[in-house]
Amino acid sequence: MSITPIPPLDRLQAATAVLAAKRRTGLAWADLGRAIDRSTEWTTAALLGQHPLTAEQAAALGSALELDAPVVEALELPPVRGAHVVDTSEPIVYRLQEMVQVYGRTISELVREEFGDGIVSAIDFEMDLRRVEDPKGDRVVITLNGKFLPYRSW
Amino acid sequence: MSITPIPPLDRLQAATAVLAAKRRTGLAWADLGRAIDRSTEWTTAALLGQHPLTAEQAAALGSALELDAPVVEALELPPVRGAHVVDTSEPIVYRLQEMVQVYGRTISELVREEFGDGIVSAIDFEMDLRRVEDPKGDRVVITLNGKFLPYRSW
Amino acid sequence: MSITPIPPLDRLQAATAVLAAKRRTGLAWADLGRAIDRSTEWTTAALLGQHPLTAEQAAALGSALELDAPVVEALELPPVRGAHVVDTSEPIVYRLQEMVQVYGRTISELVREEFGDGIVSAIDFEMDLRRVEDPKGDRVVITLNGKFLPYRSW
Amino acid sequence: MSITPIPPLDRLQAATAVLAAKRRTGLAWADLGRAIDRSTEWTTAALLGQHPLTAEQAAALGSALELDAPVVEALELPPVRGAHVVDTSEPIVYRLQEMVQVYGRTISELVREEFGDGIVSAIDFEMDLRRVEDPKGDRVVITLNGKFLPYRSW
Amino acid sequence: MSITPIPPLDRLQAATAVLAAKRRTGLAWADLGRAIDRSTEWTTAALLGQHPLTAEQAAALGSALELDAPVVEALELPPVRGAHVVDTSEPIVYRLQEMVQVYGRTISELVREEFGDGIVSAIDFEMDLRRVEDPKGDRVVITLNGKFLPYRSW
Amino acid sequence: MSITPIPPLDRLQAATAVLAAKRRTGLAWADLGRAIDRSTEWTTAALLGQHPLTAEQAAALGSALELDAPVVEALELPPVRGAHVVDTSEPIVYRLQEMVQVYGRTISELVREEFGDGIVSAIDFEMDLRRVEDPKGDRVVITLNGKFLPYRSW
Amino acid sequence: MSITPIPPLDRLQAATAVLAAKRRTGLAWADLGRAIDRSTEWTTAALLGQHPLTAEQAAALGSALELDAPVVEALELPPVRGAHVVDTSEPIVYRLQEMVQVYGRTISELVREEFGDGIVSAIDFEMDLRRVEDPKGDRVVITLNGKFLPYRSW
Amino acid sequence: MSITPIPPLDRLQAATAVLAAKRRTGLAWADLGRAIDRSTEWTTAALLGQHPLTAEQAAALGSALELDAPVVEALELPPVRGAHVVDTSEPIVYRLQEMVQVYGRTISELVREEFGDGIVSAIDFEMDLRRVEDPKGDRVVITLNGKFLPYRSW
Amino acid sequence: MSITPIPPLDRLQAATAVLAAKRRTGLAWADLGRAIDRSTEWTTAALLGQHPLTAEQAAALGSALELDAPVVEALELPPVRGAHVVDTSEPIVYRLQEMVQVYGRTISELVREEFGDGIVSAIDFEMDLRRVEDPKGDRVVITLNGKFLPYRSW
Amino acid sequence: MSITPIPPLDRLQAATAVLAAKRRTGLAWADLGRAIDRSTEWTTAALLGQHPLTAEQAAALGSALELDAPVVEALELPPVRGAHVVDTSEPIVYRLQEMVQVYGRTISELVREEFGDGIVSAIDFEMDLRRVEDPKGDRVVITLNGKFLPYRSW
């Protein structure tokens, strides 16, 4: 029987350790995605605590990032999703928030017209971010791709 | 001197009138975009009150939608942007909100790694929504395209 | 061109009119469900403004409830969903809220163990409420039935 | 007289220790329910800190989960119920929240019609969660079963 | 078919009309309780919109208070309970709020010790307010009387 | 000059230590009230940190509960009252909260009618909780007894 | 039986009418205080809806301010106190708020030291505001005078 | 170069240490004011962290209160003002809050009438608290004295 | 005695009427400033309801903008300042808000270092906004000019 | 592999250490700006955690302030921006907040008139604070200089 039954690290602490290790090793998020054969975006979200990682994935990432065993172990914990994990006043996140504010009803109307009554899944969902060069200033292009789910009537 | 100095309609009331006229005329948002030679997305946002419309654009949309003169006039008012215009608990909008919650820090990290210290503009920005057919259920693909703006140091 | 472009009633006002008509006619929610061949629960939610009704459904309900034409027309408007539509401090709703508070993490854990990483859909969803007689006091049994949606990784 | 009068663990810390022990031992929630002859759902809620456990129940669960003595002792503390124990923005919990939002008034109306003025108890209450296989995707069926309590007039 | 399907008054407007009629007629709350053979406290709460009134009760109260027919009709509507009905910063209500703040945990502890795990019902509940003369200043004595409801385990 | 000028325990930590000692010693709240010749209710509130205790009272309670010296010393600190000390979503406290919500305006009206413009003191106040046996289920009867304080006009 | 049972004005609307009449008549608050033989401060608060006025006081003020009968009648209604009546972000009110923020704990400590455990009554209270000339800029001196109320122990 | 660059105590921790030392030494707030030749009120506020203290003042107070060197050093730090420093639900502070609520608009009106458009400074401000004996119960008299600052127009 | 004692327009409604009249007449804010010999910035703020206008100023502005008499009269009402007058989520206002968020502590530190303990007045204050041409994109330069006010000690 | 993978200090802790070192060394913010050849304002914001510092900048500042290696290392971490970093109730920051409240709509109107539909960038932005001597009391002049960004239409 161990003396301290509480695990030494949770997913958010593991994310902090991952960010420090990434700085130390000089690896890019794309390198980490390749290490587990997943997209850069999903891998970043997972390492920040938003998606589960299998023991194999955690081990591969731990090896790439030269993480201590407790961090690797913490990466195998369930994800910690929720509003407290992101600060919507952080300037980049706020711009996303403002896009939802300005275009949210537009998206609702266009989805309703094209698909009928339902939603865009945030679960059966994938996301992609890339740089598009532009002489007037390069652009960030974020693609949100979610399955349409119709409301069931019964 | 007129008797009622207060304009009969504001942008939000004009948006309600536009939605009613759209139902009555059976026009699609894409038809309205074509009427003013703008994208479907921008036109929808503008008619919902989020972007300014010139007198010519308001007249063309008023003609297509068979709007009354006071509604057309109200469409020429400045836009009314802000948090009170969208209800983030509306199910479609909430899924966008949850995407920001789950992927907001991921986007911050990827933008910082690729571009350095700065933000994705919500102003020098365009947005596109389209249906992608999929045998497992069609998908909604939303593209957010904003200029990267680096923080100035001085 | 009509003089008043704003529709006389919205979905929430239509719901108020429906409740008054229901009292006047003495019909039960189950009668209204039968009138459109849908479940009592879905029909109640739709008449309270949470689901769309087709022109045929609105006409059948308008006929059963002896509704005025503007109310019937308002029933065909899109639903108005969101946090402002329900008062979570209303005593019955609060008990539902407290059930989520007390058993929310339990449900998360049991879903994760049984199904893996994902959610219970509130969209591909149906709900059923019935009375179960009990000598110690009859019971309300509410069944929530939602499709499991696994998180996509990519 | 002991030197540290403050108990080493509270119910929330005990819940964290239980989750770690469950991962270590590979037991299922149903196994734990069987260990104390209670339902899986009640047992899960109790281990997460929402219900009291007797000394016997705590000992049986401690033995099954190979828990340290301080964790077993903490399981005998009174439950810690309240809004701070659950994060309503966690994606599964939010869907429950949205169900309350969309169907809360429907439930109020149906209860009032069927039972009269009163509430559905969240105390004289039991809950059941099970998987229902479905070729279009398995479903989570949650049954909420609460006694109807009529308002007293006096 | 009536021209105005929306009822002219709701319960809160009826309460305002009742307060005006009470001032006009000079009746006391106790007189109104006697008119329907209920306690003063329950009757006051009912007239303020917190409890349902039968057609007979509404008629008796309407006769005593010389209310118009639409007010009497509105008194028969279902009650409107919820946090928006009371302003907790109103000085008397705030003192009740502060009593809950100062003595809430005390009540929880004493109930748990005396009755075990459960709550004091706010539904199977009655309340009584009376003046107790005191040479140092008369006192308001409020008695809260609720059934103990034990948590069910299953 | 001492090395650690900050006291080792505050009133809330003392309350936690008191609850643990009460469990250990098996004393009832009434026993503790008798130990200092005060009511059970006041004593419970005081031990939970809501009222000041004299050095004599703290010593007597420390002796009864076999408390360490630092806990006894902390009991002599000023009380820590305020909204953060109680969680109004804890199920028992919430029922009190709901009673205030449902009957708050009723109490305001009855006080105004009986006493005139003023409040019920929460300071010159005493509270009493007792069990009343009832064949349909025992009842919790809480008596709130506060001095009426008239508003001064000047 | 009157046709409109709802009174035409409430206390807040009466306050608006009083402010307009005060501008029209050019009376000062002190004039109004003299008209009912009360202090300027109490009278101002009463006319703004925070204190009750007797029929005689309302008539005297109505005569001085040349108010319409419905406004005079509304002045006799019970006061409307609560947080919604004042906007704490209004610049003068905010400075009062900030004084509470900066000196609130100071006042608590000084009251406790001088008087013991209790509060400063906001009910058995009077307030006075006067100008004090000062060559460096005149000063506003506000005197808050409340009875000390000791906590009762029992 | 020191090993721990972070100072051991901040102003709030220093305030806690001061309160403990005051209890230990039995000094009154007035004694502390005399020790630095300032008013009791300003000195109390300063020791609670709301005003800056010079090195000389900190030393004199440290000597009077027999404070450790780290506490004296912390007293020289800049003040920590802001809403988080005071709990407005603490009963004494709440009464101040309620005074602002009930008399805030009155003060605004009286200041505007007497001085014109401007505010009462909370910076060029002093405050005084004293006991006034009264056979019906002693009174707390708090004098708020702030410079009137007129709005500049330009 | 007039029939409608409530003034037909308040400052916010007057501001709406001013914006409509400005559009109709094609005047610039600078034209309006010149009409009353005040700065463009102060005049804009005053017309939006944030500053008082004398009868002469209101008349001059009413003449320039061809306003109706009730609007001119409303411009003479006291200003309506407070948080509800501005929506901090409006995109321009939010950027100001974010500047305060990013640079607020910086400004506090620089003011403290340069001036000592005190604040920058928002009352003895003036503000100026101008365009500065820049080949990379013109710039908005906003100058905030407030008197330093030292905290008084006493 | 290191034993503690979590970095010992974050940007906010580094800011606390910087403030202590600045006090110890007696350096001014302007000295620190000169040490890295940047403005005083930008340097202050960066040291408080709002802007990134290069390794060279961190080393130069660390040398000037005689910082420990862990603090210097922490200064190289990414900035921590967001609403939690500033307390808007701190008196200086609140005045900035109030300026936004009073003049926010004015700035929106003037920007729209002069530049058209768009915003003032808070990213391509610089800020300057200086003392202006004035016989009536010196003034703080803060210049906010942001690029105008027009909304894109597409």
From TrEMBL, chains A, B, C, D, E, F, G, H, I, J:
Q: Which SMART domains match?
A: Cyanate_lyase
EC code:
4.2.1.104
Domain Cyanate lyase C-terminal, by residue range, is 82-154
GO molecular function terms here? Answer: cyanate hydratase activity; DNA binding
Q: Which Pfam families match?
A: Cyanate_lyase, CYNS_N
- List UniProt keywords, sorted A-Z: Lyase
Query: InterPro entries this protein is in?
Result: Cyanase, Cyanate_lyase_C, Cyanate_lyase_C_sf, CYNS_N, Lambda_DNA-bd_dom_sf
What's the name of the protein?
Answer: Cyanate hydratase
Q: Which organism is it from?
A: Pseudonocardia petroleophila
Q: Which gene encodes it?
A: cynS
